[in-house]
Every structure is written in C-alpha cells, then in structure tokens.
C-alpha cells in the first residue's frame, strides 16, 4: 500500500507555508527567493487542490530559471546581475527551439 501525501492546509491565514522546506515563511517571500519551488508545488496533486495557493502563485509574473547557472533566479534578477548571460540566452538555439515562454520574454529585453 502506497501512502499518498495529502496535507489538509498548505497556507495559514497569514499566507505562511505550513509544509515543506520553506515552512513558516510567507508565500510571497518564497516566490521572490525561490520561485522554482513554488512552481514545483503547483505541479503536485495536493497543491492543485488549494485554491488560495494556486491563485497567489498564478499571479506571479516570473517563475525563474528552471535550469542553468542561475537556476531559481528570476529573469529580472539575471538582467540586473548578469547581462552577458541574457545575451547568451537570447542567442541560444536551445532556448529558441525548446523554451517558447522564455524566448518571448527575452525578445522583449533590449540588450
């Protein structure tokens, strides 16, 4: 018999996480510092059932890089801290062929 993880609640009334590696941290702070974790949560069956959590995360504009040397950093952070990496991404065949959303965001950046 396989035990399935099904928490009753993920957020408390103050929007602090009740579970996981960011337990007791506000979801908005986690979205800022570890957006990949939030987007990972969105793909978990137990999180999809939490309308409050899904609403907060869906309003976030930048899920952050899911791979590469700036994994878990937002595109805004990368623009501010590593312009060369933005240029690399804009010219990357991998991004052009496999990362439609990222490519669309990069096309809007004038560097």
Task: Give a written overview of the molecule.
The chain is mainly α and 111 residues long. It folds into two domains: 1-60, no CATH class; 75-107, no CATH class. The chain has helices at 27-33, 35-42, 45-48, 51-58, 75-81, 83-91, 93-98, 100-107. It is elongated. The termini are far apart. The model has no long low-confidence stretch (mean pLDDT 86).
Structural descriptors:
single chain; 111 residues; mainly alpha; 0% strand
Summary, kept brief:
By secondary structure, the chain is mostly helical. The chain has helices at residues 27-33, 35-42, 45-48, 51-58, 75-81, 83-91, 93-98, 100-107.
Rg computed from alpha carbons, rounded to a whole number of angstroms = 16 Å
Task: Give the terminus-to-terminus CA distance.
Answer: 55 Å
Quick one: biggest sheet?
A: none
Number of DSSP E strands: 0
How much helix is in the residues? Answer: 40-55%
Query: Which structural category do the helix and sheet elements fall into?
Result: mainly alpha
Low-confidence stretches are none
What's the topology here?
Elements (H helix, E strand, L loop, with lengths): L26 H7 L1 H8 L2 H4 L2 H8 L16 H7 L1 H9 L1 H6 L1 H8 L4
Helix pairs in contact: 1-2
């Amino acid at each position: 018999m396989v035990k399935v993880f099904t928490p009753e609640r993920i957020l408390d009334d103050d929007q602090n996480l009740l579970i996981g590696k960011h337990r007791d941290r506000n979801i908005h702070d986690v979205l800022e510092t570890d957006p990949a974790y939030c987007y990972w949560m969105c793909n978990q069956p137990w999180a999809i059932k939490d309308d409050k959590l899904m609403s907060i995360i869906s309003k976030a504009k930048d899920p952050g890089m899911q791979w590469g040397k700036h994994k878990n950093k937002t595109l805004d952070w990368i623009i501010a801290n590593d312009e060369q990496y933005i240029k690399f991404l804009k010219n990357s065949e991998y991004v052009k062929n496999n990362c439609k959303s990222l490519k669309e965001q990069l096309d809007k950046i004038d560097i």
